[in-house]
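QUALITY CONTROL LOG
STEP: pairwise intake check
CHECKER ROLE: data steward
CRITERIA: each record must contain a sequence immediately followed by its structure tokens, with no blank fields

ENTRY 1 OF 2
RESULT FIELD BELOW
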Amino acid sequence: MISYTHLLEILFLFLFLIIAVSFIKKKEFKEFLYFSLPIILFFYFVEFFWCYREKGVYITDNFRGLLFNIPLIVPVVWVIFVFTSMKLTEATFQKCKIIKKESPILSLSDAFWSVLFAILITEPLAVNLGFWEHKTVNPFYLGAPLWYFVGWFLGVFICSFGYRVSKFLEKSKRIIFLIGYISLVIIFRVIFYRMFKF
């Protein structure tokens, strides 16, 4: 019998494939890689670091495909979140003449939509279905601390900003820029934790 978790994993994989096909149809496979690969790398690290610091834990019995106790579907879901947020931003600002369509400042809107999505859908779903459990002494919402949502906002902003900026670069330099950009963010995050334990 298929569990809720496995059904959701299949659903998210299906949505991920739809995003891949839409990128490939409108642009090309490389564009999909430019968009998705940095997000997958970055958010896998974010999830790993959050669990490593014992701020939360996945109920791993519910998932298939784990790498260091992080379900592999999770970074894929982040690609869906960022893509959906960017589409909502596009719909919100499509008639705006002040902000250009590809402006990196729109990353703030992407991050806003993603946090709203987290508060209204993702967190209630994950907690109530037993996918995820927060370990904090200062709960803000559904057991999660305020910093969890601040981190969600910053994470989506970082990925969206990098992707939007990369559109102004030559195609040959984009993947190097995006991987380098995400790697630097991860390195600074580790240094920040080592220095301030935060």
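ENTRY 2 OF 2
RESULT FIELD BELOW
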Amino acid sequence: MLPGYFPWYPMAGERQVFAEYPYYNGGNGYNPYNRIPEADFSLRISSGCDFVTNIKKKEENLYEGRSDGISIVGGNIVQTENSCFLNYLPLELSRIGEKQYLEELNQNWQQILAEIENVFGIDSDELRNKKLIMASKDMGRNFSNNFFAEFDDYILFSENYLSSAFYITYLLHQSGKESEIGDQFISAVLSADTVSADEILEDMFSRETEYQQFFNEMGEKDSSPAISDRLKELKQQLGAETLLRHMIQYLLDPELKTDQDFFDKYS
């Protein structure tokens, strides 16, 4: 497994290979945002196992194409002619046939695209036009934020982590904004049973209440107003769907630096 964000091939300049996240509940892992300026590649691959890559085969062992990063995944994989997925892992098939499995993967991906657009308010047109390459669970099992990576022409992912929640956390970790709203949002969206504005916001509110109760029991009272109290006021004014979209826009907007900037803009 050679992910395109890892400099196993020439990447000009000094590169941060491993990243730590002091925000959004911490974590660390390989830096999935490493990219190169889009370039033409010509690559000869000799392998004793089946493999898939994002650049196209031109002739025996020769692959050529244009991309901002090359990924190669090999081993116990099956290449497909599917319109979305370049491959799948046969070990994922349990009491299900290949055709049904790919149909369910497609349905799941279409549902994810709908949630990204309709719940989080993010345009998913570019995602729809990209092929998906499936890697093993090892891609994200041992580190945080290593289970999904979006490139100009494809998406590299681990099947268990293909969800709108993980896509949103991938975007927010990339923006790197220290935010209590962001901390609470990521905890809530990753634990929500359904991807809906109401459920995510209610989970955020209940989590902060639990934290406040815990600190009170420890004798560490916080005199500052609870974030959830201010978000509840905005929810009454704007509605859950609009508030959630504004939150995502704030967390991805480099111009708004702090949670106070968010409240100043939307209150």
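INTAKE CHECK: passed for both entries
DESCRIPTIVE NOTE, ENTRY 2: DSSP finds nine helices and twelve strands in the chain.
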